[in-house]
Every structure is written in structure tokens, then in C-alpha cells.
Amino acid sequence: MVLGVGGGIAAYKVCELLRRLTESGHGVQVVPTDAALRFVGEPTWAALSGRPVETGVWDRVHEVPHVRIGQNADLVFVAPATADIMAKAAAGIADDLLTNTLLTARCPVVFAPAMHTEMWEHPATRANVETLRSRGAVVLEPAVGRLTGADTGRGRLPDPSELFEAARLVLRRGAVAPDLAGRRVVISAGGTREAIDPVRFIGNHSSGRQGYALARTAAARGADVTLVAANVDLPDPAGARVVRVSSAVELSEAMAAERAGADAVVMTAAVADFRPVTSAASKIKKSGAAPAPIELVENPDILAGLVVDREREGLEQTIVGFAAETDDVIANGRAKLARKGCDLLVVNQVGGGRAFGTEDNQATVLASDGAVVDIPTGPKEALADRVWDLVVERLPRGAR
């Protein structure tokens, strides 16, 4: 693969991405811009990649590097992708080795933008991003956080570990076009917590790993991804906008706000069915007597509510639910599918070390049209990709 490095302060983070790529067995050709070499020198890139760094169109002219590098690549991954690089790529300008490589590449191309918020939000940058996406490139959404100097906002380069996952997922799909390009998807993940007092809560064992896998794979397939995360201790997936919530009521409000304009909504989060009627203002202490019973009230049925809202508004929106069951898995799944009214219900058996907190998962997907798809045990990303396959089949033709 080709790792194109743009001239931004975030170039130092790309050293960790390069290390992860080479240690996982990928052959990586680093192509930094002249500006990138002001931040990280050529010896660093050469030492980490184990091969000479390509820097100019006039080096080894007999090998025609400005054409050869792009032609031979399985993936071109640009990080940090500056506003300048994306503007040149969108306009077809080829004034250095990296932009020449982008023009000659016929493999998947991924841009991982990093810049100040004002630059990312500028209409020119937004237009360039849309142009690149319309041509089949994957342009990841930048993260929110500390930028250069004292500034904070959207424009931060995602964590190198998540950039590595994005590269790995795109490589796994090969030359397949990003079939979620132009689509907006909203995913919930994690488990809600319902406060008993400031210390204790009613919750569940959901780690959020399956929802995060769905977010990663959707971003790798070109989607505009919003992830509503409930109490998840995982790095933000590269390319996803993350909204953090805690309780079921907060999750319900966030999903109601984010679902507008979405082509697909996937409810992976494990939502507590009940919450305490009241939450104590201070920690409940032992008194020697039997504790007072905790009165519970039902939480909103978020998945069913999403379906009702879709039908009321006449939206063309694919809705996917998840059902964690301990017994009578398929029978309980069919009953839940009929009760909720969603298009797909992903049913998996939990408990006994299965599903929650693990790297692997298996499921049966029940469809409202009667289809049944079994997904064997495998990495959660593999299950996520299969779910997106089923979603893509049900989306209206043509990206908006």
C-alpha cells in the first residue's frame, strides 16, 4: 500500500499508523509531501517502513515513479489529508509525487483529514470532500478534540489504531466500490445505565464492540456515520461522529434527533427495560434494616418508536434492531420482530461468555419479508459487514 503523508502537525501520529501497518505484514511505500518532511524527517519514514522513501517525480526517472507507484498499489491511504491535498485531488492537480500517485491509482483511496475546524467547515473544503466521495474515494470524518495550539474542535486526526482498522477494512473489501457512499447511517452502541443514586445504577454487560464494528465497517464502505454511544470505553471509530449518552431516556432523545435524514438506523445498544422512578440525591447508606424497595418504571421502547416515527413521516429508511436472548432464541426473535416492526432483527445468544465483551459474535438475522440469514461465529467486523450487505439490499436505489 501507499501511505501518503500531508504537511500537517498530525504527521507525527502517522508514524504509529505506519508501525502498525508494517508489523501486521503490509508492504508500505511512504510518499510524503515536502511540507510533511518539515514535520517528520525522511529517515523516520524509511526506518519504520523498511524501504526508501519516495519524495519526488525526478528521482529515478527511468522507473517513472509518478505512474508506477499508483499503478502498483492495493490501497492509497492519505494521512493527514490536508485541505490543500484534497483540493488538489478534487481538481486533478498533479504538482508533486503524491498528487501524481492519486491520479494514477486505480485501487481504493482513503483520505483521513486533519485541519482546523474552520478549514474543515469551509464551503470549499466541503465541496472538495463531496467531489472525492462522488468519485469513489473514502473520506473519513475527522475526530473532535485538541487541535494545534489551544484550539479544540472537529478536525483532529483520529487515533492511529482506528486509522489502522479503517485501512484494514478497506483492504479486506479490495476493489469493491464503497456501496454506502452518499448514505447517512445512525448506529447506537453500548449499554444504558439507570441511576439508583450517584454511585449505583441498573445496567448490563454490553461493551459496545458490535456497534463500534458496525460504525467502522460503514465508514470503510463510504457512509456518513453517526454513532450514539452509551457508556462505552473504546476509541472513537475513525470516520464516525460520536454522540455520548448514558441513560435510556438520553439515548432515546439522541436517536430521535439523529435519525432525521438517515438512510439506515441500527439499534445495537442494549437498553435497560426499566429505570428507578426516583434517583437518590446522595449515596444510599446501610442502616441495619432491610433496604427500601426500588420502584421501577418502564423505559421508552426506542426501536419501536423509531419505526413509528418512520411510518408517520413516510420515510424511506431501513431500520435494524438487535436482540440478545438467552433461550428460545429464534422464537423470541420472531416475536420481537413482529412486535417492533423493524426491517431486520439481528438475534444472538448471550451469556456463558458469548457476545458481550468478546471479539467474536454469531447471529441469525430475521427479516420482515420472512428471510432468515445465519451468520457463523467470526470477528464482529465480519458480522457487521454481513449486516450492511443486507441493509444495502433494502436501501432505495441510488445514493442521495
From TrEMBL:
Gene designation: coaBC
Pathway: Cofactor biosynthesis; coenzyme A biosynthesis; CoA from (R)-pantothenate: step 3/5; Cofactor biosynthesis; coenzyme A biosynthesis; CoA from (R)-pantothenate: step 2/5
Listed EC numbers: 4.1.1.36, 6.3.2.5
Cofactor(s) named in the record: Mg(2+); FMN
GO BP term, pick one: coenzyme A biosynthetic process
Domain Flavoprotein: 2-162
Function: Catalyzes two steps in the biosynthesis of coenzyme A. In the first step cysteine is conjugated to 4'-phosphopantothenate to form 4-phosphopantothenoylcysteine, in the latter compound is decarboxylated to form 4'-phosphopantotheine. Catalyzes two sequential steps in the biosynthesis of coenzyme A. In the first step cysteine is conjugated to 4'-phosphopantothenate to form 4-phosphopantothenoylcysteine. In the second step the latter compound is decarboxylated to form 4'-phosphopantotheine.
Family: In the C-terminal section; belongs to the PPC synthetase family.
Region (Phosphopantothenoylcysteine decarboxylase): 1-184
Residues involved in CTP binding: D273, K283, P300, D301, I302, L303, F322, K336, K340
Region (Phosphopantothenate--cysteine ligase): 185-400
Record keywords, A-Z: Decarboxylase, Flavoprotein, FMN, Ligase, Lyase, Magnesium, Metal-binding, Multifunctional enzyme
Domain of life: Bacteria
Pfam families: DFP (PF04127), Flavoprotein (PF02441)
A GO term for molecular function: FMN binding
Catalytic reactions on record: (R)-4'-phosphopantothenate + L-cysteine + CTP = N-[(R)-4-phosphopantothenoyl]-L-cysteine + CMP + diphosphate + H(+); N-[(R)-4-phosphopantothenoyl]-L-cysteine + H(+) = (R)-4'-phosphopantetheine + CO2
Record protein name field: Coenzyme A biosynthesis bifunctional protein CoaBC
Stretches assigned to the DNA/pantothenate metabolism flavoprotein C-terminal domain: 180-393
Cofactor note: Binds 1 FMN per subunit.
Species this protein is from: Nocardiopsis alba
GO CC list: phosphopantothenoylcysteine decarboxylase complex
